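Hey, resending since the last one bounced:
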Amino acid sequence: MNSSKYLIAIIFAFFFNATFAQTTEEQEALSLNSGTIDSQFEFVFRKSGNFKGTNGQAYEAVKSSWLYTLRAHVKDSLDEIRKDLSDTRAVVESQANEITELKSNLSKTQTDLTNTNAEKDSMSLFGMQMSKIGYNTLLWSIIAALLAFLLFFIYKFKNSNAVTKQAKQSLSEIEEEFEEHRKTALEREQKVRRQLQDEINKQKKA
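The structure tokens again:
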């Protein structure tokens, strides 16, 4: 039983010493010239003296030098915050301007891309922009018309060539017939001349 009480007393003493040491370290860590503004206010609160006025109300006695120092630190902190806020606003405005410029460039890029796609999907013919489908249709129509004209020309040429051959053959036949007729007529003429000459000779003899 005594040992249990002794153990409890040791544990209580250990926790009391640890808590007291931590509180002492926190108090020693507090400073008016270092740490956060909150820790500096905590330093003033803990170092202030307590007294009661004539009316029995409790007051805190604070050194005026601490208040001046604390006010200067608060002012410095506020100035730093204002500077950071001003810098942040400048950065935000700069980023907003960059975003606006990027949006403008993106819009211009999208417009250029649209125009490029339109030009890529179209062809220029005699100064007129035509879609690739229309251009290909017109081109193949022209090729088909030229091919049809070529086939018609070949047909007409062959037909004319056949007619020309037929005409030459007919002319040759006519020339042959004419030559034959000329020979026949010449022979007939010669025969008639001989008969006439024979008749003239008979008349002379008579």
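Residues 44 and 190 are 168 Å apart (CA to CA).

Sorry for the duplicate.
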